[in-house]
Design goal:
Layout lengths: L1 E4 L12 E3 L2 H8 L5 E3 L2 H33 L2 E6 L6 E6 L1 H10 L15 E3 L1 E10 L2 E11 L2
Parallel strand pairs: 4-8
Antiparallel strand pairs: 1-2, 1-3, 5-6, 7-8
């Protein structure tokens, strides 16, 4: 039985692929669960149309993300923190601090997109990657300064 997958299924195929499956697997599991549809000529044409729409949306989202990445890449954020001995920070600079500084700079980004491996605990300049889109990553420069 030939079916068109409506979502990615491990060890079977990716969304939009036409695959050959056992009749029982298709009729009793894939189609009732909404994971696939029968591969008819009408469904194949509808799939091609849907694929084109998804591709256009993905291209627009990528272009938007590239614009945002350009805006972010030019930013240098300065954060002042209290310092104890040997220029170590009293606290640390975390993802939420960076997110708040970005908002103040006019860029709203979800915290989970900021890829800070561990909190910053010293003075200096740090490059922090921000994953704006699947294939688009920007780096913002964070300057941690001594609070006067």
């Amino acid at each position: 039985m030939k079916v068109i997958l409506k979502e990615d299924i491990p060890k079977l195929g990716r969304m939009g692929q036409t695959v050959d499956v056992a009749r029982g697997y298709g009729r009793n599991y894939l189609i009732p669960q909404g994971k696939a549809i029968v591969a008819t000529s009408k469904n194949l044409k509808a799939l091609e149309h849907e694929r084109m729409l998804i591709q256009r949306k993905a291209e627009l989202a990528r272009k938007e993300a590239e614009g945002l990445a350009e805006k972010i890449s030019g930013l240098t954020l300065s954060l002042s923190r209290k310092v104890v001995e040997e220029d170590k920070l009293y606290g640390s600079v975390s993802v939420s601090d960076i997110s708040q500084a970005l908002e103040e700079a006019g860029v709203e980004i979800e915290r989970k997109l900021i890829k800070l491996e561990e909190p910053i605990k010293s003075l200096g300049e740090f490059k922090v990657p921000i994953k704006v889109h699947d294939n688009v990553t920007a780096e913002v420069i964070i300057q941690v300064l001594k609070e006067e």
